Amino acid sequence: SKRQGRNTYTFFNHNMGKEVYQRLLLEEQMLGALSRNEFELHFQPQVCLVSGKMSGVEALLRWTNPVLGAVGPDLFIPIAEESGQIVPIGKFVITEALSAAQAWQQQGLDLRVAVNLSPRQFRDENLTQFILDELNRFELAASVLELEITEGLLLSGHPGVSDALTQLSDAGVSIAMDDFGTGYSSLSYLRRYPFDLVKIDRSFIRDLMLDSADQELVSAAISMAHGLGLSVLAEGVETEAQWARLKAMGCDAIQGFVFSKPIPRDALTRLALAESTR
Ligand code: C2E
Ligand code: CA
Ligand code: CA
Ligand code: CA
Hints:
A hairpin with a 5-residue loop joins strand 1 (about 40-50) and strand 2. The protein contains 10 helices and 10 strands. The protein is of the alpha/beta class. Strands 1-2-4-5-6-7-8-9 form an 8-stranded mixed beta barrel, surrounded by 5 helices. The chain has helices at about 1-35, 75-85, 85-105, 125-135, 150-155, 160-170, 185-190, 210-225, 240-250, 265-275; strands at about 40-50, 55-65, 70, 110-115, 145-150, 175-180, 195-200, 230-235, 255, 265. Bound molecules: ligand C2E and calcium ion (3 copies). One calcium ion (CA) binds near residues 58 and 178. It comes from Neptunomonas marina. This is EAL domain-containing protein.
C-alpha cells in the first residue's frame, strides 16, 4: 500500500540514506579524480631477510579529494571495481609505478616494484599489452615489475585470466599471490598458475609470537611454498621479534611497519639512497 511505501521510504531515508548518499558522492567525485590529479602512489619497502636490505616496494594508491578528504583504498577500491573506474585508475597505477622504477634505476637503485591488480582489470582485453608497452616505453626489464593478485581473481573463473597471467609471466613479470591463507583454494591455485611469490596475510603475523597455531601455519606455508619453488614474504610485520622469528623460520622477505609505513615517492627515494650508501 501507499502507506507502507511511505513508511519504507522514511525508514530508508533515516537509516540508509546517509550511506547511500556517501557512496553516490564518492562515485561522483571519483569520476573526475584522475583528471584532477587527486591520486598518488605511496610505496612500502619490502625487505630481504637474508641481506636485511630493501629489495623492492609495493605501490599503494592514495586518494585525496577536496570534498571527501583522504579516502582509504579499502573504501574506494571496491567502489572503483564495481563502477569500472578501476580500469583507468589501475592504468594510472601501473604507469606511475613504472615511472618511479625508471627513476630509481637511473639513480642506481635496484628496486622491484609490486602493483596490485583487481579482478575487474582483467576484463580489459588490452591489460597485458598495456603492461608490456609501458615496460617498453620506460625501457625497463619485465623482471622489475611484480603483479599482486588475490584468490578472488582466480575464483572468478574469467577465461582471459589464465592467458594473461601466462603471457605476463613468460615475458618475465613476476606474479605474487596476495593475502595468502585467507581463502579456501589458494593451494591448488599455486600449482595451476605461474606464481613466483606468496605474500602471507598479516592476520597470521599479528599474533605470531603468542599463538602457536599461527606459528604452525606460517611455518607450513613457508615449507610448502619453498617446496613448490616459490619465495615467501610475510605482510604486516610490526615488531623486531616477529622479524627475527620469521627469519628463523626461513621466510624470504618481510613488509610492515617495523621497517617503514607506505611513504611518498620522494621519501622512498631518500630512504633507499641512504640505505645504499650505508
Ligand atoms: P594489501 O594489498 O594487502 O596492502 C597492504 C596493506 O597493509 C596496506 O594498506 C598497508 O598500508 C597495510 N600495512 C602494511 N604494513 C602493515 C603493518 O605492519 N601493519 C598494519 N596494520 N598494516 C600494514 P592500504 O594501503 O590501506 O591498502 C589497503 C588495500 O587496498 C590493499 O591491501 C589493496 O588490497 C588495496 N589497494 C591499495 N592500492 C591499490 C591499487 O593500486 N590497486 C588495487 N587494485 N588495490 C589497491
Ligand atoms: Ca598487495
Ligand atoms: Ca614467473
Ligand atoms: Ca596483502
